[in-house]
Amino acid sequence: MLYRSRGAWGQCKFSAAAVTGRKKQALLNQRVALKLLAQGMNMAMENMLAAIGRWLTGGIQSAGAMTLLLVNILRCLVKYPLRWRLFLQQMYLIGLKSQFVMLTTGAFVGAVFAAQVHFQFVRLGMQSAVGPTVSVAMCRELGPVFCCLLLAGRVGAAMAAEISSMKNTEQLDALRALGVYPVEYLAVPRFLAMLVSAPMLTGLVLVVGIACGYLIAVPVLGVDGAYYWDNTVKYTGPRDVLIGLSKGFLFGIIIAVIACYKGFNPSLGTAGVGRTTTEAVVVASLTILISDFFFTFILNSLFLGRV
User: Fold this and answer.
1) DSSP letter at 288?
2) What is the pLDDT of residues 169-182, one digit of tens each?
3) How many Å apart are CA 36 and CA 32, to the nearest integer?
4) At 221, is the secondary structure helix, strand, or coil?
5) Exposure on the CB side of residue 185, measured as CA atoms within 13 A
6) Rounded CA Rg of the chain
7) How far apart are the first and last CA of the chain?
8) What is the DSSP-derived secondary structure letter of residue 268?
9) What is the 3-state secondary structure (H, E, C) of 210-233?
10) Which of 21, 167, 178, 188 is deepest in the core (most CB within 10 A)?
11) In Å, how far from its chain's centre is CA 124?
12) What is the pLDDT of residues 181-215, one digit of tens each?
């Protein structure tokens, strides 16, 4: 009996030691896992911060390069005579051939916005306020923003694709060999044509949008036409029109500079032309939407004294 009790006691001690060893091993494994997890989180955080830093650095470098390109274009305007044939050709491609797109955009944006405003204002008995709301919104925001977003997609993409294909096929080097400065030959006519065309197309969108808003609000939705036009003329002043045209002018600068910059700095190969075109449209569109916030405050301050 004594032998058996000693054997059982030994087995109990062995089992307790085994349990204690397993607990220690589990704690050790847990510590190792926590340490590896902390190291992985630190590496992920470092990689994320490095990616953000590279993105910010690349954005700052691109912004600086675009600024230098803009300065270079302005310098070429002063230093070299304007190539009128290329300028008029770009006016035709940018301005005249974009009219149908802008007419369609202005018409449906004005019509849809007038309908939406009427559906909400009719609950408050403010049908007479539909006209000035549509006209002010079209002049200040909807007209220039929609117009220049479409210009960035249609014209900006074409600029970037044409210049980047010339870069990849070494046509820019051929221009330099012939003694022609590529920025003066390619960028300046496009820049000037965009500066002239963007405000004109913006004004076209404003007029068509306001007119189509009237056609939807008065004959279709039953708003009184006399009150519509009277309030539109009363509450829409030159200040609103100037803000819209100024935004179109500034957005035109953004589109031309970004498209030309992306065209002069493309990725290599045929696929690079496609990537460059996509980047030009995306960057120009985002820049328009972001800068619109700042232009709104700046232009409202500049035209504060105008009725």
Assistant:
1) H
2) 888 888 888 888 88
3) 6
4) coil
5) 14
6) 32
7) 113
8) S
9) HHHHHHHHHHHCCCCHHHHHHHHH
10) 188
11) 35
12) 889 999 999 999 999 999 999 999 999 999 999 99
